[in-house]
Write a structure and sequence with these properties.
mainly alpha, globular, two-stranded antiparallel ribbon, binds iron/sulfur cluster
Length: 80
């Protein structure tokens, strides 16, 4: 049986999970997307956060890779 790392982002998981994030990202208009450096910085904070569980924020239930992609989104605990 395979185990899943709780600290993995969806993009670090199997293709099916990775593709799900890429499928929904275009729903965020280009003008509303966070710059790439900001996006990666946010995700590195999430990776070190105790609320991250298999790409989902345990504080709000969102997929962190989608929340972090929206420029004006914020962490529910003000970590970014
Ligand atoms: S959005 Fe905030 S609370 Fe949620 S996993 Fe990321 S850093 Fe943690």
């Amino acid at each position: 049986m395979k185990t899943v790392c709780k600290k993995c982002l969806r993009r670090e998981m199997a293709e099916a999970y990775k593709n799900m994030i890429e499928k929904y990202k275009p729903a965020i208009k280009a003008a509303d997307r966070a710059p790439e450096a900001c996006y990666e910085s946010r995700l590195s904070v999430c990776k070190a956060c105790r609320y991250l569980n298999q790409g989902i924020c345990g504080a709000c239930g969102c997929y962190v890779e989608l929340r972090a992609a929206a420029e004006h989104a914020a962490c529910p605990y003000q970590k970014w």
